[in-house]
C-alpha cells in the first residue's frame, strides 16, 4: 500500500507500475522500470502485470472510451474475443446497473 499526502505522486507511480499511461494518446515512455527483474515496458502481457499491480480509485474513473468499451475492456483483458459473447455480457451488465436505456 502507498500512503501519503495529496499530490505527492502516489497515483502517478501506480499508473507507471501498471502501465495505465499506455492509454494516454501520444504518451512517450523513456527509461526502464523493472518489477521482479523484468522490464515492465518490455514485451510482456499487460493483463498479467495488472494482476500484480492494482489500483482502487477514490471516484469511478472510466477509461477515455465509450461506456460499452469500458464494460467490454475487462472481458477482452481476460481473453474473451467473441463479439456476441461480449455484446451479451455488456448488455446484461448495463441492464443490471439500470444504465442500458
Automatic annotation (TrEMBL):
<dbReference type="InterPro" id="IPR027417">
    <property type="entry name" value="P-loop_NTPase"/>
</dbReference>
<protein>
    <submittedName>
        <fullName>Phosphate ABC transporter ATP-binding protein</fullName>
    </submittedName>
</protein>
<dbReference type="GO" id="GO:0016887">
    <property type="term" value="F:ATP hydrolysis activity"/>
</dbReference>
<dbReference type="Pfam" id="PF00005">
    <property type="entry name" value="ABC_tran"/>
</dbReference>
<keyword id="KW-0067">ATP-binding</keyword>
<feature type="domain" description="ABC transporter">
    <location>
        <begin position="1"/>
        <end position="91"/>
    </location>
</feature>
<keyword id="KW-0547">Nucleotide-binding</keyword>
<dbReference type="GO" id="GO:0005524">
    <property type="term" value="F:ATP binding"/>
</dbReference>
<dbReference type="InterPro" id="IPR003439">
    <property type="entry name" value="ABC_transporter-like_ATP-bd"/>
</dbReference>
Amino acid at each position: 500500500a502507498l500512503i501519503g499526502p495529496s499530490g505527492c505522486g502516489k497515483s502517478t507511480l501506480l499508473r507507471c507500475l501498471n502501465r495505465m499511461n499506455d492509454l494516454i494518446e501520444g504518451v512517450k515512455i523513456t527509461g526502464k522500470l523493472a518489477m521482479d527483474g523484468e522490464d515492465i515496458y518490455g514485451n510482456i502481457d499487460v493483463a498479467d502485470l495488472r494482476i500484480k499491480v492494482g489500483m482502487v480509485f477514490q471516484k469511478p474513473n472510466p477509461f477515455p472510451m465509450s461506456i460499452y468499451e469500458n464494460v467490454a475492456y475487462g472481458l477482452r483483458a481476460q481473453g474473451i474475443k467473441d463479439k456476441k459473447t461480449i455484446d451479451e455480457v455488456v448488455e446484461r451488465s448495463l441492464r443490471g446497473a439500470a444504465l442500458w436505456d
